[in-house]
Design brief:
single chain; 2 domains; two-stranded antiparallel ribbon; 40% helix
């Protein structure tokens, strides 16, 4: 039961572009709180199997939350990659304005989801000779979200990014000046 509770929290708490430390600490804190009765039992009876199992489960759930929850959320959405590729195809065939710039590279999606981002969300597709990418942001939030890209971290100039899986990345703006990224993200200059 402890594994189910902590695993579920590790699945729902992390958000693309947000700090991964806070949800990890929540999972760790709840796991430690759940371990207290087991530790007390261990001290009183000398049998520590329950406490050790809860502590091990807490550590595994914390690692899951920080490292694997968001990549798994993207990987488990079997339509996410197809949706991103369809956005790029649609962009290539969309009407263009002056200098060949697409007239409508961004759109709001009011139903569905892409990985851990649920509707309403914004989808912006970009195709240049340097690379192709689609950015997904939640609601009105435009400074952090998910990106599907064939050029990696350079998709996010002067921002913080973290590779998730395959061509999927998450990104956020730097905190308190250039290069100050949340733990787990890397800064990519050049914008």
């Amino acid at each position: 039961m402890v594994a189910a509770v902590l695993g579920s929290l590790g699945w729902v708490l992390p958000r693309p572009g947000a700090s991964l430390v806070v949800p990890t600490l929540v999972v760790l804190g709840i796991g430690c709180a759940l371990a207290i009765p087991g530790v007390i039992y261990w001290l009183v009876s000398g049998r520590g199997a329950i406490a050790i199992a809860i502590i091990a489960t807490t550590l595994v759930a914390s690692i899951w939350t920080f490292e694997f929850s968001l990549p798994a959320a993207v990987a488990s959405d079997t339509s996410a990659t197809a949706q991103a590729q369809a956005a790029l195809v649609q962009l290539n065939s969309s009407p263009r304005g002056k200098y060949g710039i697409p007239l409508h590279p961004c759109s709001m999606k009011v139903v569905g989801s892409v990985g851990p981002i649920a509707a309403p969300y914004r989808q912006c597709a970009v195709s240049t000779p340097e690379g192709h990418f689609v950015l997904y942001t939640s609601g009105t939030q435009t400074s952090r979200g998910l990106g599907y890209t064939d050029i990696g971290a350079s998709t996010f100039p002067d921002a913080c990014s973290r590779h998730l899986i395959g061509r999927w990345w998450m990104f956020t703006g730097p905190k308190n000046g250039e290069g100050a990224c949340p733990i787990g993200y890397s800064f990519h200059g050049g914008g």
